[in-house]
Amino acid sequence: MSHAVSTHNAVAPIKGVYRHLDCIVEGIAALKKAGFRPNMTVLSPFPRHELEDLMYEGEPSPVRWFTLVGGLFGATMAFSLASITHANWPMILPGGKPVVSIPAFTVITFEGTILWGSLLTFVAMMIFSGLPARNLPKAVEDPRFSNDCFGIVLQGLSAADAARARSILHHSGAIEVSGGEEGGHHGA
Questions:
Q1: Is 158 left (phi over 0), alpha (psi -120 to 50) or beta?
Q2: Is residue 132 reached through a cis peptide bond, with omega within 30 degrees of 0 on the bond before it?
Q3: pLDDT in tens, 128-146
Q4: Distance of CA 64 to the CA centre of its chain
Q5: Could you please report the per-residue DSSP string of the chain?
Q6: pLDDT higher than 70, residue 117
Q7: Structural domain boundaries of the chain?
């Protein structure tokens, strides 16, 4: 099993570049089988369900809980705002109608639900996507990963693990494998 090592023993990040989806899928599976999962960053020029399924193994996203909490908060706040406002400044209502009426406040409740649900979803997406991205290794900044190639970047590996990882990347069909030099964990 691969373990993260301290920065003075770590090698530079290892980058594997792939042209084909099936090759990177094979590479990810081989790396995970070898125990490199915690140290792996996968890059793709466009969303692919195959990569998501492999990386997250069907685990649902925690973003949905933020959406639920935001929606419930928004509905509660919108209904409360409309109800309290209407109760503080009541109008003369003929026919014995209630001051706080659910049908009258349905639209504002719905709008509050959507507003706060979407705002918290946006915040959660930023948090769980790691945006804004700071302190990324230079290997991740390869422009090919936003054009036509897929990539795998492994960080925090010992020299022995780096040699195994480079071998796995080569055997899975990477068109380029770079990095993994000794003592290269200085933001490279």
A1: beta
A2: yes
A3: 888 887 777 777 888 898 8
A4: 12
A5: ------TTTPBPPEEEEESSHHHHHHHHHHHHHTT-GGGEEEE-SS--HHHHHHHHTTPPPTHHHHHHHHHHHHHHHHHHHHHHHHHHSPPP-GGG--SS-HHHHHHHHHHHHHHHHHHHHHHHHHHHHTPSP-S--GGGG-GGGGTT-EEEEE-S--HHHHHHHHHHHHHTT-SEEEE--BT--S--
A6: yes
A7: 14-59+135-179, 63-88+99-129
Sheet with strand 176-179: strands edge to edge: 40-43, 150-154, 14-18, 176-179
Identity of residue 41: T
pLDDT at 179: 86
CA separation for the pair 39, 13 (Å, rounded): 10
Tokens of 88: 């503080």
Q: Is the pLDDT of residue 6 over 70?
A: no
